[in-house]
Design goal:
The chain is an alpha+beta fold. It has a single domain (about 1-320), classed as Ribosomal Protein S5, domain 2, CATH 3.30.230. It has nine helices and eleven strands. The strands form two sheets. Strands 1, 2, 3, 4, 5, 6 and 11 form a seven-stranded antiparallel sheet that branches. The chain has a four-stranded antiparallel sheet with strand order 8-9-7-10, with helices on both faces. The chain is globular and about 55 Å long.
């Protein structure tokens, strides 16, 4: 049979803790988006066939861990890579799910994500693929941290500590400036380890307070203004950990864009998603057009071009459809 898998991007607001002084390390929070999306199709084959380089690598690994002969994999839509929207994890898991389904297998994405090199520090991307919504993961025991990166597959995805539906009328402004890609792969790993080894433990206490006393209550009560302000504060405090690694609390030119959005009544809070350069702004359906205009003005203020859109949250996981018998 053939299989089609569709999933959206995600925002990554930051981590609860990067200090080795606390019992648990990392612990991330973020939200699943309905757009932009990745769409992958697969059908059985005697070997791996795929014209998309990154997807081909994922397909080969998926066939290996699933113990199947091969698959013909096509990427119909993809997330912009290395801008902070979770393209790597969503593509890898979409390929894994599609290959598994076309062979009648259970993908077991949470168990197999580490085999594809995903879900090591943050569990937001895996949880977003599974069930969407707002996600807070539990991180890892700090005692497991090593100065050298662990081999692929030698970790488990952090468990979900809290998940909430995001109100249907909330929206997220996405501003992706024309800038150098965010950190990924070995560069990202080295920067994260450097940040962890130098992290101020006091910031973790402040961030935990913001999450428990502001982010989660605002989400539970549907207060978009309070939620936006709270996640923006989480991002700003996280930026203090990364300042040496990214050239400031926000990486250039994100700081200028965030500053411009902070002055707009159409946006309730703005920040950098993951390593950027994607910038998010929290808004709602009634302010969407004004938020779009604010995003374009923010790019102008920063003196750069880029893509601006307003997207809905996604309160469900990846959509999977199966048809026919496929081809040999």
């Amino acid at each position: 049979m053939s299989a089609r898998v569709e999933s959206g991007g995600r925002l990554h607001f930051g981590f609860l803790n990067l200090s080795l002084s606390h019992d648990r390390l990392y612990g991330s929070l973020g939200v699943a988006l309905d757009d932009p999306r990745v769409v992958v199709e697969a059908e059985p084959a005697e070997r791996v066939r795929c014209d998309h380089e990154r997807a081909r690598d994922h397909a080969a690994r998926a066939c290996e861990v699933l113990d199947v002969a091969g698959a013909a994999v096509t990427v119909r839509e993809e997330l912009p890579p290395h801008v902070g929207l979770g393209s790597g994890t969503q593509l890898a898991l979409a390929v894994l799910e599609a290959v598994a389904r076309t062979h009648g297998r259970d993908a077991a994405v949470r168990d197999l994500a580490p085999e594809l090199g995903r879900g090591g520090r943050s569990g937001v991307g895996v949880a977003a693929f599974e069930s969407g919504g707002f996600v807070l993961d539990a991180g890892h025991p700090t005692g497991l941290f090593t100065t050298a990166a662990p081999p692929r597959g030698a970790w488990t995805v952090p468990p979900v500590a809290a998940r909430h539906e995001v109100p249907d009328d909330w929206r997220f402004l996405l501003v992706v400036p024309d800038a150098e890609p965010g950190k990924a792969g070995g560069e990202e790993d080295a920067s994260m380890r450097s940040a962890v080894e130098a992290a101020d433990p006091g910031l973790a206490d402040r961030i935990s307070g913001v999450v428990t006393r502001r982010v989660l209550p605002a989400l539970a009560s549907g207060d978009v203004a309070a939620f936006g302000a709270a996640v923006a504060e989480v991002g700003r405090l996280n930026g203090a950990w990364y300042a040496d690694e990214q050239g400031g609390v926000y990486r250039p030119p994100v700081g200028c864009i965030v500053d411009a959005l902070d002055g707009s009544p159409a946006v309730s809070g703005a920040g950098q998603s993951s390593w950027g350069p994607a910038v998010y702004g929290v808004t709602d359906e009634g302010r969407a057009e004004d938020a779009l205009a604010a995003g374009r003005e923010a790019l102008d203020a920063a003196g750069v071009g880029g893509d601006v859109r307003v997207v809905a949250p996604r309160n469900e996981g990846a959509r999977v459809s199966e048809t026919g018998q496929g081809k040999a």
